[in-house]
Design goal:
Isopropylmalate Dehydrogenase, ten-stranded mixed beta sheet, single chain, globular, alpha/beta, 21% strand, 40% helix, binds nicotinamide-adenine-dinucleotide
Length: 369
Amino acid sequence: MASQNILLLPGDGIGPEVTTAAQRVIDWFGRHGTTKFEIESDLVGGAAYDAHGEAITDAAVERAFAADAILFGAVGGPKWDDVPYEHRPEAGLLRLRKDLDLFANLRPAICYPALANASSLKKDVVEGLDILILRELTGGTYFGEPKEIVTLENGDKRAVDTQVYTTPEIARIARVAFELARTRSNKVTSMEKHNVMRSGVLWKEVVTQVHETEGYDDVKLEHVLADAGGMQLVRNPKQFDVIVTDNLFGDLLSDVASMLTGSLGMLPSASLGLPDEKTGKRYSLYEPVHGSAPDISGKGVANPIAMIASFGMCLRYSFGMVSEADMLDKAISAALASGARTGDIADGGNAMGTTEMADAIIAELESLA
Ligand code: NAD
């Protein structure tokens, strides 16, 4: 029997609540399929700081390197607002992204038909939406040096962030975009600002070159300026399939796309590294897009769908279990179609809790099995 080793890092706030729900779904697949899931857990974020004085321990990072995939809940909360900057809860997540070189961040934005009314946009604009934003995650403005605030001779201050990309960094994310498009609707839209940024000029040049010289001509490629792309995302989002963009623009555009789907509680994500040349194994971390939601933490009302769908992405992208991933997506869709709603997506009426939503999805898995 095949076996996959998953490291659970539930984190803080609603992180542990939605992770428990996802673990029930993992257990269901473990009981009903041909793959055994070995699960380990560790602390991250504020929980790790309270126990060990740092946002993730070296031992937990070692476990992350050894795992076949990582499922990450959420970190942070007001309790840790005043901890030293290097130990803030987010430092645990940033260390994992950096150490495992998780450069490709996949954020699908899917609007389930049953939830088309929950979006702030008109129903016909978003109903049936299924797009994927691919954000470069380890380069660009958030990491470029110099990154500093300096005091000038006259006492004024000067702040600098540096947008920097190299050819290999752009080429590897472009390849991921083309490969993903081939599993979907075969179209890639690359977004940058080549009209005003030198990094945009290089980005466009390298994406075009990879497309032309590496055998991706079966995939349609278009280039759209990132600001116009943001406008198109709210005007006519269904025109897109895979959008590939840099770290900063990807942060903004994927948050815009999140509102197309109705709630943060619905959005999964994956962060992937390069496949190992010999084994094909790639480091991967799956997490909901939402944070630790301190306002609802401990109440048992968090929507677990983003976390459960993150496990679905793990089945698809790390374990190659595509039919199981499709089945889980169908079960989520069916649970929503049958009226299952947590508070964040309820349109008035009675909302269910985290456990009941997981029950509803597992019941649909039972009937699909
Ligand atoms: P948030 O995503 O935690 O919450 C925003 C709003 O969405 C809240 O009203 C919350 O109740 C709601 N919400 C989020 N997830 C939900 C779910 N699954 N079900 C129902 N409602 C849900 O963002 P925030 O309030 O800006 O941040 C709270 C904390 O989380 C902060 O400490 C922040 O730094 C941290 N954060 C962590 C991550 C991460 O771990 N990757 C991401 C974003 C924010």
